[in-house]
């Protein structure tokens, strides 16, 4: 108990507690934004992919790679280059 009282009276504790609290809030907001982006890309892959095989593939990539998979899907499929029709 005396250790806690001594720690509470230290000079730098207030600044350190404030900085740690701010960092936790920033990390929490990043986690919320990443989750929303992940869900958005997951739903987009299921709704907008033309072929069932591609839907399953992109769903698995996004689902198992989480944020990295969502970023890959966003970079590849939303760039427009991958949506060009193939001549064949």
Account of the protein in words:
With 88 residues, the chain is mainly alpha-helical. The chain has one domain (2-80). 78% of the residues lie in helices and 0% in strands. It has three helices and no strands. It has helices at 2-8, 13-48, 52-77. The termini are far apart. The model has no long low-confidence stretch (mean pLDDT 82).
Distance between the termini: 77 Å
Percent of residues in helices: over 70%
Major sheet? none
How much of the sequence lies in strands comes to: under 5%
Q: What structural class results from the helix and strand content?
A: mainly alpha
Mean pLDDT: 82
Number of helices: 3
* Number of DSSP-assigned strands: 0
Question: What is the domain tally?
Answer: 1
C-alpha geometry: rod-shaped
Low-confidence stretches: none
Q: Radius of gyration, rounded?
A: 22 Å
Series of secondary-structure elements, N-terminal to C-terminal = HHH
Give a quick precis of the structure.
The chain is mainly alpha-helical and 88 residues long.
Primary descriptors:
mainly alpha; 88 residues; 78% helix
Task: Please render the helix and strand layout as text.
Blueprint: H1 2-8, H2 13-48, H3 52-77
């Amino acid at each position: 108990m005396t250790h806690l009282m001594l720690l509470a009276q230290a000079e730098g504790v207030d600044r350190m507690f404030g900085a740690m609290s701010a960092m936790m809030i920033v990390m929490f907001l990043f986690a919320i934004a990443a989750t929303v982006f992940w869900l958005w890309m997951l739903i987009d892959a299921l709704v907008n992919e033309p072929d069932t095989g591609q839907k399953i593939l992109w769903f698995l990539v996004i689902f198992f790679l989480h944020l990295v998979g969502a970023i890959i899907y966003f970079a590849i499929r939303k760039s427009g280059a991958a949506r060009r029709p193939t001549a064949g």
